[in-house]
Write a structure and sequence with these properties.
By secondary structure, this protein is α/β, with parallel strands linked by helices. It is built from six helices and twelve strands. It has one domain: BirA Bifunctional Protein, domain 2, CATH 3.30.930. Strands 1, 2, 6, 7, 8, 9, 10, 11 and 12 form a nine-stranded mixed beta sheet that branches. A three-stranded mixed beta sheet has the order 4-3-5, with helices on one face.
Length: 256
């Protein structure tokens, strides 16, 4: 099976709004293409057979051509920011806006799934803009695939990443009450089977920021990082490269 071509871009350290605007443009481009293709399909079904064939032939000659959707994969890190999912609960934020300002933390209500989470330096944030119709039309399977990318990455560090039933993301000791700790949060948006938003993987993240929220709205469970689990500072670029390689593996992709 041929690999899916995925255009990769490392945005580096970028403010949340700029990254959101950038992925929104890519997302809307793909959604727009899907919308045009759907309109073309509907138009063709209402044409006489000869007319429909003329339209198809025009497309084949390069006339009235609609481009194909394109997969993208963005990696970045953000200055300190709290983001709330569209179905999230603001009461899971434990500090006031004034306190956020004093701590230099921005705050955004987003259109992704999930609840409240934190993004900050030395956290790998991944935004795949994927046309799932080229893979499978199953959002649950997509989320499990994203989790698998991080689980495989953790294996390379000698750590066992796990799923927690009913809770999206990747955990350490997911099945041991009182010892569960989340190392990667996830929240996505999907329209016309185009995805956006994604995952936040704690590498050398300052975990004290998580004290300002109830992470993902889940009480009495801890948050961790690669640095904390390994008891050493982790090479951030090396961790990113591992994530990229495992993304290619899980999604049968070639990053370009």
């Amino acid at each position: 099976m041929d690999k899916q071509i995925v255009l990769f871009k490392d945005l580096g350290l970028i403010d949340y709004q700029s990254a959101w605007d950038y992925q929104e443009r890519l997302f809307q481009q793909n959604v727009g293409i899907k919308s045009l293709l759907r309109k073309r399909e509907l138009a063709n079904t209402n044409l006489e057979p000869g007319k429909a064939q003329q339209t198809i032939n025009a497309d084949l000659r390069g006339e009235q051509t609609i481009p194909a959707t394109q997969h993208h994969f963005l990696l970045c890190e953000h200055p300190p920011v709290l983001t709330l999912g569209k179905s999230g609960h603001a009461e899971n934020i434990l500090i006031s806006e004034e306190e956020m300002a004093l701590k230099g933390i921005q705050y955004f209500k987003t259109n992704r799934g999930g609840d409240i989470t934190f993004h900050g330096p030395q956290q790998i944030v991944g935004y795949p803009i994927i046309d799932l119709e080229k893979y499978y039309t199953d959002i649950g399977k997509y989320l499990r695939s994203l989790e698998e990318v991080i689980i495989l990455t953790l294996q390379e560090y000698g750590l066992k990443g796990e799923r927690s039933k009913g809770e999206t993301g990747v955990w350490i000791n997911a099945g041991i009450p009182g010892s569960e700790r989340k190392i990667c949060a996830m929240g996505v948006r999907c329209s016309r089977w185009i995805t956006m938003h994604g995952f936040a993987f704690n590498v050398n993240t300052d975990l004290s920021y998580f004290n300002t929220i109830i992470p993902c709205g889940i009480e009495n469970k801890k948050v961790t990082s690669l640095q904390k689990e390994l008891n050493r500072f982790v090479d951030y670029e090396d961790a990113k490269n591992k994530v990229k390689a495992n993304f290619e593996k899980v999604f049968g992709a070639a990053l370009q």
